[in-house]
């Protein structure tokens, strides 16, 4: 790809269909994790262009530096790893809310790594790119190839992928003012760790594109720790589970967003409207998507 070109990338968010945390940690201090994720069609639009110096700009601007630093660090590490000296400007138009368990900073960093790998003539799943993704953050590797996947290790080692699961309607709901700190949630988990259940039944359902089977096996053993820290996120989670037309629901990641797998698009849209209008919660009706966030 010519380095003078402009790239526009769609960075989807994710939900965890299964998140199983173990008490044991690796040398980096990351917990051992079984994580089954699917990409969702709520995403950021990322524009990458050649520049005199590397920069990362968010629109709207971020309050804190952490998310910017993840993307900037990813660019610097990949440039160093591949021996590339091109500087780029990166503009990220934000739609994914921070602190929701939707993978916001990981989506940005992983999608930029994927785009830069292609720009610099390297397969996004090249071991060097994957190695950089793992150094930047636990979920970043998923966004190098955002398809339904099981990741182990610290949630950064791809175990297997599943057939595309496109067009499944979801409702995302998140109460205001309770964005989760992933670090704090894991610290709370460590106070009373629970051995996770197996993800085998869920993986079997995904292999068959069995949406009902997958819905029957949603799981997240990090959610109780998140709820102890932010009990208010339990309100939309419980509310979602009671809505007609919901196949299953749970908190994603370390919170604070909950999602519902819905029987139809109209159900997801109705739930999102009610969440916003009746409760004042942030809410979106979305779909699971294919690679690059495109419904295909």
From TrEMBL:
SUPFAM superfamilies: GHMP Kinase, C-terminal domain (SSF55060), Ribosomal protein S5 domain 2-like (SSF54211). The active site is at 14, 139. InterPro entries: GHMP_kinase_C_dom, GHMP_kinase_C_sf, GHMP_kinase_N_dom, HddA/FKP, IspE, Ribosomal_Su5_D2-typ_SF, Ribsml_uS5_D2-typ_fold_subgr. Residues 71-144 form the GHMP kinase N-terminal domain. GO terms for molecular function: 4-(cytidine 5'-diphospho)-2-C-methyl-D-erythritol kinase activity; ATP binding. Pfam families: GHMP_kinases_C (PF08544), GHMP_kinases_N (PF00288). Residues 206-278 form the GHMP kinase C-terminal domain. It comes from the Bacteria. It catalyses: 4-CDP-2-C-methyl-D-erythritol + ATP = 4-CDP-2-C-methyl-D-erythritol 2-phosphate + ADP + H(+). Pathway: Isoprenoid biosynthesis; isopentenyl diphosphate biosynthesis via DXP pathway; isopentenyl diphosphate from 1-deoxy-D-xylulose 5-phosphate: step 3/6. One of its GO terms (biological process) is terpenoid biosynthetic process. Its EC number is 2.7.1.148. Keywords: ATP-binding, Isoprene biosynthesis, Kinase, Nucleotide-binding, Transferase. Catalyzes the phosphorylation of the position 2 hydroxy group of 4-diphosphocytidyl-2C-methyl-D-erythritol. Belongs to the GHMP kinase family. IspE subfamily. This is 4-diphosphocytidyl-2-C-methyl-D-erythritol kinase. The lineage of its organism: Bacteria, Bacillati, Actinomycetota, Coriobacteriia, Coriobacteriales. The gene is ispE.
């Amino acid at each position: 790809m010519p380095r003078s070109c402009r790239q526009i990338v769609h960075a989807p968010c994710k939900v965890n269909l299964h998140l199983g945390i173990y008490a044991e940690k690796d040398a980096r201090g990351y917990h051992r994790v079984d994580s089954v994720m699917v990409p969702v069609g709520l995403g950021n639009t990322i524009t990458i262009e050649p520049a005199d110096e590397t920069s990362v700009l968010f629109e709207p601007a971020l309050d804190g530096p952490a998310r910017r630093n993840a993307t900037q660090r990813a660019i610097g590490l990949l440039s160093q790893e591949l021996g590339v000296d091109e500087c780029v400007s990166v503009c990220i138009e934000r739609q994914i809310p921070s602190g929701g368990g939707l993978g916001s900073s990981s989506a940005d960093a992983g999608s930029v790594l994927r785009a830069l790998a292609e720009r610099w003539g390297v397969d996004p799943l090249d071991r060097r790119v994957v190695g950089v993704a793992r150094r930047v953050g636990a979920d970043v590797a998923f966004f190098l190839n955002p398809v339904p996947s099981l990741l182990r290790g610290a949630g950064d080692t791809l175990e297997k992928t599943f057939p595309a699961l496109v067009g499944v309607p979801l409702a995302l709901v998140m109460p205001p003012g309770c964005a989760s700190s992933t670090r704090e949630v894991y610290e709370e988990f460590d106070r009373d760790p629970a051995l996770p259940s197996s993800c085998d039944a869920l993986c079997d359902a995904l292999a068959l594109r069995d949406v009902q089977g997958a819905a029957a096996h949603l799981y997240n053993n990090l959610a109780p720790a998140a709820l102890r820290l932010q009990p208010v996120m339990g309100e939309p989670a419980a509310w979602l589970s009671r809505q007609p037309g919901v196949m299953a629901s749970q908190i994603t990641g370390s919170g604070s967003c909950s999602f519902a797998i819905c029987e139809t698009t109209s159900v997801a849209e109705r739930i999102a409207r009610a969440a916003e209008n009746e409760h004042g919660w942030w809410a979106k009706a979305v779909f699971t998507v294919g690679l690059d966030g495109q419904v295909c």
